[in-house]
Design a protein that fits this description.
Elements lengths: L11 E5 L6 E3 L3 H11 L7 H5 L9 H6 L6 H12 L11 H13 L13 H8 L6 E3 L3 H14 L7 E7 L5 H7 L31 E4 H4 L6 H14 L5 E6 L2 H10 L3 E5 L12 E2 L2 H7 L3
Parallel strand pairs: 1-4, 1-6, 4-5, 6-7, 7-8
Antiparallel strand pairs: 2-3
Helix pairs in contact: 4-5, 5-6, 7-12
């Protein structure tokens, strides 16, 4: 179902999903794990065997994104770690880097001979890769969207351009790093942190920012489609400015992005590049250019 045309409104809070909406892996995750492992002398496996250690039904944004590139070995590592330490370890006071280190060890350790020690240098190398443009790339339609948004901000006084752009994603704190490494500018504002608010005092610099805020499940403690992650964003926007905000969320997952936002009282759009949801009766756009046209940017 195509979305209805709509005029640009003064106070729009536009939020976007990250994984699978703005960026995706440069190569299958299993291939990238296997490549790094082999660089450090770990061998005797196929890419598929590495993948099998990773996922096994984990219910995170990465699982939805990686399911076509991982198979059964890595599944166990991801599922077990998610069960023992939910929300990337945040609920038990574990840092996300430690959480991922556990998964990396569990994924690769069975391929390390008993006579050798685990190559610990694999861990920081993989952590860096999947926190940057080394592991991910933007979809081709994303940068043109933000370039047009920048032009729009420059052409319109800050007080007259009312579109605030944020990210709502089920992820740990790598997302801002990834977005910056891919060429987008991200304001250092994360919901759930001690200083998660901003005021009109920094509005003069808004044209320099592509992303105004980032809402991570890791920080907030709830994952899409739980309405509480959307409610946290709405509460923040009310504190920024006493406006009658219009809230629109765009993402590639029908349940987490579209239905989750609707349940929270938001408008939502399905970004369906690969036409995975052809039978779903919902408003959708095929790419970010369709979204740009819809918002009259």
């Amino acid at each position: 179902m195509p979305p209805p045309s709509r005029p640009h409104r003064r106070s729009l809070c536009l939020t976007l999903d990250a994984f699978g909406t703005l960026f995706h892996p440069r190569q299958p995750i299993a291939t990238q794990y296997a490549t790094v492992a082999r660089e450090h002398g770990v061998s005797g496996f196929t890419d598929e065997e590495i993948g099998q250690r990773f996922k096994d039904g984990a219910c995170r944004s990465e699982w939805a994104l990686f399911r076509t590139s991982l198979t059964r070995v890595s599944r166990v590592a991801y599922k077990d770690e998610s069960r023992q330490h939910p929300n990337y370890g945040r609920l038990v006071g574990m840092r996300a880097e430690h959480w991922w280190a556990n998964i990396i060890r569990a994924t690769l350790s069975s391929f390390v001979p008993a006579t050798k020690s685990f190559p610990e240098r694999v861990i920081p190398q993989l952590l860096h890769r999947f926190s940057s443009d080394e592991g991910y790339t933007l979809y081709p339609d994303v940068l043109p969207f933000f370039q047009q948004l920048r032009r729009r901000k420059q052409e319109t006084p800050a007080s007259g351009f009312g579109t605030t752009v944020g990210i709502i994603t089920n992820s740990d704190d790598r997302v801002p790093l990834i977005l910056r490494s891919l060429g987008l500018t991200v304001r250092p504002l994360k919901l759930g942190c001690p200083r998660w608010y901003f005021t009109h005092a920094d509005a003069s610099n808004r044209e320099a920012q592509d992303i105004d805020f980032v809402a991570l499940s890791y920080d907030i403690g709830f994952e899409k489609p739980d309405r509480r992650i959307f409610d946290a964003v709405k509460e923040m926007m009310k504190q920024i400015e006493n406006e009658d905000w219009e809230f629109l969320h765009v993402g590639d997952d029908l349940e987490k992005d579209v239905n989750g936002a609707k349940a929270a009282g938001w408008e939502s759009l399905l970004l369906d590049r690969e036409k995975k949801y052809v039978d779903a009766s919902t408003n959708r756009v095929q790419d970010m250019d369709d979204l740009r046209k819809l918002l009259a940017l």
